[in-house]
Amino acid sequence: MRKQYQVAIVGAGPSAIFAALTLSKVGMEDMAIFEKGKDIHERKRGRGMELLCGWGGAGAFSDGKLTQSPKVGGFLGDFIPQVELMNLLRKADEIYLSFGAPKEVFGQSSDKTEALYQEAKLAGLEFIPMEIRHLGTENCAPLLKNIRDALEKKADIFFNTPVKEILVDNGKAMGVLLENGTQVNAEYVICGPGRVGAEWIKNELQRLKIPSVPSPVDIGVRVEAPASILKKLTDVAYEAKFIYYSKTFDDKVRTFCMNPFGEVVTETIDEMVTVNGHSYADKRTENTNFAILVSNTFTEPFNDPIGYGKYIARLANLLGNGVIIQRLGDLLDGRRSTPDRIHRCITQPTLISATPGDLSFVFPYRHLKSIIEMLEALDRITPGIFSRHTLLYGVEVKFYTNRVKISPVLETDIQNLFLIGDGAGITRGLMQASISGILAANEILKRMGKEQDL
Predict the structure, then answer these.
(1) Whole-angstrom Cα distance, residue 377 to residue 355?
(2) How far apart are CA 266 and CA 395, in angstroms?
(3) Among 29, 39, 357, 416, which is least packed, fewest CB within 10 Å?
(4) Rounded CA separation 394/221 (Å)
(5) Is the entire prediction scored with pTM above 0.90?
(6) In this model, does residue 454 exceed pLDDT 70?
């Protein structure tokens, strides 16, 4: 391992990968990528860090939805003009296509899209139309391997090499200190730690005295129902994005990661088990699943939304020895689900390891009430979702680090230190994460006199 590079990149998720691709496109090879997980061909869809860390980040085992709308997947619209954001979305999409993404696009505008938009308004919901290119869970790893092969000779890539600290001197980034004690100097540092690194980067921001404010925490359930019930939505939008503001608490509630004919899966981090969902390109189940997430922003004196989310998840693990599953009818009747009740349910679960139980012991009333209201509103446009046979899995929680004060090119108050991707609290999906890497890398190239046209 060399001790000096022009650019040090922390992490190897989509944001970091696209930063490296952007730098390499002009022939730059003086960069190093430090990833705490394994290389793509060594990763397996297992538990813990194996699922979330490594080449491709958590996206390697996602179902690979490339959303083409600037309204979802992050906050880059707060930093750059809408026109520029759309251009970057197209650029990122072209790059994914060049490495093997399928050409088919779902959710294209039509009369049915407009009708669903109007119908949602009548139900008190905001429908966000968007186009999606769907990779499928089984196709993410091969695509990421293609990118890995393209970068192999253009960057020094180190796996199983976590970064301990970002090195700073006189308000300027100087490199990184690895957990093995090695100091690597660099003129620029791009930090894309992913969601799994949210707590680490939060601590680094505090240590370096970089100003930030807590991000909202998104906590909710994974909903599963027969695919026929949601077919009206998935045929029109594939992934139907809805936003609702609860009548009781005025909290923002949203659908997230809808998986037509998909399966519910678990994620494990720090011995904490949460729930998620996938769908494949060439394999189908009889069910469709999606998340309903409730967003809460805390105010002083509390400033640890990540800790709060982990507390809720661990409570579910304590009561259910992992993920809890409950029929909506049982929840509404104030009783726990039992293995026999789940067995008699019309909707048969795709996550058979989930423990039948009672989610009312896990979620605060505020969250449960908002989730139930959202399901009632959805039932007005897709009848049958508010059924006693609808399954709820808990908990699903999305961790985002504090929103950092950064420039439009994603540079912090520390010169030459750039924060990108989901772990930096800036993005919430594959496309905007990828774009954030392009933005930061292009600014570095500009300072080197090698700027690319965006």
Answers:
(1) 28
(2) 10
(3) 29
(4) 5
(5) no
(6) no
